[in-house]
Amino acid sequence: MDLITQAKQSAAYQAIDNHVKNGQALGIGSGSTIVFAINRLAERVQEENLNVVCVPTSFQSKQLLTEKGLAVSDLERTPSLDVAIDGADEVDKDLNLIKGGGAACTQEKIVASCAKYFVVIADHRKDSKLLGEQWKKGVPIEVIPMGYVPVIRAIEKKLGGKAELRMGANKAGPVVTDNGNFILDWKFDETKDWKKVNMEISMIPGVVETGLFIDMAQRAYFGMPDGSVTFREKLSRNGTPECDESEK
């Protein structure tokens, strides 16, 4: 196992061990690091006879959960979640995120918003002081297919930078999300007021959702090259960490 893979696994295992308890409803994200989280969750369910139900954020995570024999639900049956665990493309010093490299940002954001506590898992390369410091592929934006050109024009006019339609790597034509939409990648040229930017993009007709997760995560775990794990957590107004009830 190479060092990056080891780092992803270490972060995922620690998050699952620290935050998953019997009887919980869990949001399970998407991406390469989540694979390790699902593996560890399956181990704990079998070893400890845990009774948990999982709401996946994508076809990928639903398929992995099903393959591991874990109980799968959805937000119609399980609209309130105890903990959501997901990866990120980049995490800044304030726990703001860029997500959507795997084209699942809309469902990921919906699931995270339904959780009492949102945990991010990543390797050390995703840890930044400012968004855009490490991640150079831009902010993913899910759009209605018929509106992608007007959305590109509006983003570039309002915010500058360059927005491009994401093309498929192993197929002809653009990437299509689980919702049947397209993904734009907006490469920005300077540090922004991300809360304001997220709102401005979201208001453009044709935009479904952005990959900016602002003020949503409570804790982020980062796997390091030596196998250790560091974490950063959001502080409440009185300066104390926001509490995950499952850790009590």
UniProtKB/TrEMBL annotation:
Known catalysed reaction(s)?
aldehydo-D-ribose 5-phosphate = D-ribulose 5-phosphate
| CDD domains, per the entry | RPI_A (cd01398)
| Any single biological process term in GO | pentose-phosphate shunt, non-oxidative branch
Q: What are the EC numbers?
A: 5.3.1.6
- Going by the entry's taxonomy, the superkingdom of the source organism is recorded as Eukaryota
Pathway annotation from the record: Carbohydrate degradation; pentose phosphate pathway; D-ribose 5-phosphate from D-ribulose 5-phosphate (non-oxidative stage): step 1/1
Q: Name one GO molecular function term.
A: ribose-5-phosphate isomerase activity
Sorted UniProt keywords: Isomerase
The family database entries (InterPro entries) matched by this protein are listed as: NagB/RpiA_transferase-like, Ribose5P_isomerase_typA_subgr, Ribose5P_isomerase_type_A
Give the matching Gene3D superfamilies: 3.30.70.260, 3.40.50.1360
Q: What Pfam families does the record point to?
A: Rib_5-P_isom_A (PF06026)
Please name the top-level EC class of this enzyme.
isomerase
Report the NCBIfam families cross-referenced here: PRK00702.1 (NF001924), rpiA (TIGR00021)
Q: Which family does it belong to?
A: Belongs to the ribose 5-phosphate isomerase family.
Q: What's the protein name?
A: ribose-5-phosphate isomerase
Q: Which organism is it from?
A: Branchiostoma floridae (Florida lancelet)
